[in-house]
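Quarterly update, task 2.4: adenosine monophosphate-bound model.
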Amino acid sequence: MSFSTLGLSNEIIRAVTERGYTEPTPIQMQAIPAVLLGKDLLAGAQTGTGKTASFTLPLLHRLSSDKSKGTANGYPPIRALILTPTRELAAQVEESVREYGKYLKLNSMVIFGGVSIHLQKQRLKGRVDILVATPGRLLDHVHQGTVNLSQIEVLVLDEADRMLDMGFINDIRRILALLPKQRQNLLFFATFSDKIKALAAGLLNHPTMIEVARRNVTADTIAQKVYQVDRDKKRQLLAHLIRRDSWYQVLVFTRTKYGADRLVKQLGEDRIQALAIHGNKSQPARTNALTKFKNGSLQVLVATDIAARGLDISELPHVVNFDLPNVPEDYVHRIGRTGRAGASGEAVSLVCVDEQHLLTDIEKLIDLRLPKEVVAGFSPNPDIKAEPIPNGRQERTKAGGEKRPARSIASPQISTKRKVAPPATNGDRSSRSRRSAKGDR
Ligand code: AMP
């Protein structure tokens, strides 16, 4: 199947062809026709499946084929709103909107916290057709009267499960209350849960339901390996592997922000250049680290799960789990950074005795026994007994949205294009009594 059979305009096909896409991915094949028909969508797809283009392309098509009705500030109003949980994802999505829409006369803008609100206000005075935003900063603009959402035709909630996990539910409800009732809603999630079900029931109108294969079970392009090692030898082992195997671009995950900073320092002492990306870092520092890592001038990027969520780094060759995540699904998200779009990748986990139970949980989730190895000179000391892992959540703060409770394994069993029961009302406006996390202001 090619993009031209999906009903997209020539301008859009030209942009994706120039980007090097020859055929749509499975989520694109299913989502694009449904969105073009104006249907609501409930889609289960992880980063790496091509989900961004699956909503961006038909959205661009729709907005460029219909003229907007009203005006705002003398300009056409904002017609599409894309909400994302993190700043990085917002920036990446807006970049995709610009790239895919480069032959169309539509303007897009991204707004998120951690950077000057003043510049955003200035820009919002001009023409913006498609707005990509994180919830907290969007509400700041709403409160200051600098954004008008009354003529939104299409709402996209990208990585909605992560937004809920990060405590954005009340912010989302506030935003929904500002949108017109008549609109198209597209809801994307990575892991299905009761919370997503409840959100979908209040928001979606007879949605088309799609779920594409989880990358973890099928991703045979990712070589997964476990190195067993003592906790206090992990840093030396990582430095050893980076040198031994000449890793030039490696994304390393730590459980905590403190652990990320400490590892960067220690790698620096080993003369391995590394930078960290997490919620306590300023936005310019995060952007700088990501840019350098993407352009190949930074060898090691150390990240926490939330900060790395949604990062689109093409053909990343190596991902290292310096600590195993507390939540097994995060393992899947982490290793999904590598082996993408047909490229092969390697995902290595450094596992100490304290983490064996986390490894067992992960193996259960992905239904696979991971090969285990010991590197010469780094054999675990059999006398060291397992100790409880310190709770990383203690250090989570509001900044950058690191806050997130642990959750249970969901079991998404949604068949392709299955219809669901009649809708609830369009726009969930229930309880606003609890204050939501404003992690992104
Ligand atoms: P996403 O799941 O949206 O984060 O996309 C993951 C990666 O796949 C991005 O680097 C996209 O540029 C790339 N991609 C999206 N659609 C296609 C396609 N049809 N063919 C090849 N690569 C694609």
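Highlight for this quarter: The pocket of adenosine monophosphate is lined by residues 21, 24-25, 28, 47-53, 312, 314, 340-341 (CB under 6 Å).
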